[in-house]
Amino acid sequence: MKHNRGRRLLLDTGLRPREDPAWTTHALDGGHNLMRDVPSELLKVLLDIAS
User: Fold this and answer.
1) Where are the domains positioned within the chain?
2) What does the CA dihedral 18, 19, 21, 22 come to, rounded to 10 degrees?
3) Residue 30: count of CB within 10 angstroms of its CB
4) What is the per-residue pLDDT across 4-23, written as a single tens digit (0 to 9) for each?
5) What is the spatial distance between Cα 46 and Cα 41, in angstroms, rounded to a whole number?
6) Inter-CA distances, 1 with 10, 12, 13, 41, Å
């Protein structure tokens, strides 16, 4: 039961910025290590942010 509360907290924390118009979020199809899993998609996001 305690594990489920922690998971719910992480999900809520991750979803909150998506609903806030002051934030821009990006969803990439990768795991924890985005630089390894989806390097070109991550690079595109970073370059878009930097410009």
Assistant:
1) 24-51
2) -60
3) 14
4) 666 776 667 767 777 888 88
5) 9
6) 15, 17, 19, 36
- Which amino acid belongs to residue 17? P
pTM of the model: 0.64
For the record, the structure tokens of 49 come out as: 């942010």
Write the CA distances from 36 to 3, 8, 29, 44, 46, integer angstroms.
Answer: 28, 27, 12, 14, 15
Q: Which residue has the tokens 């878009």?
A: 48
- Chain length of the chain: 51
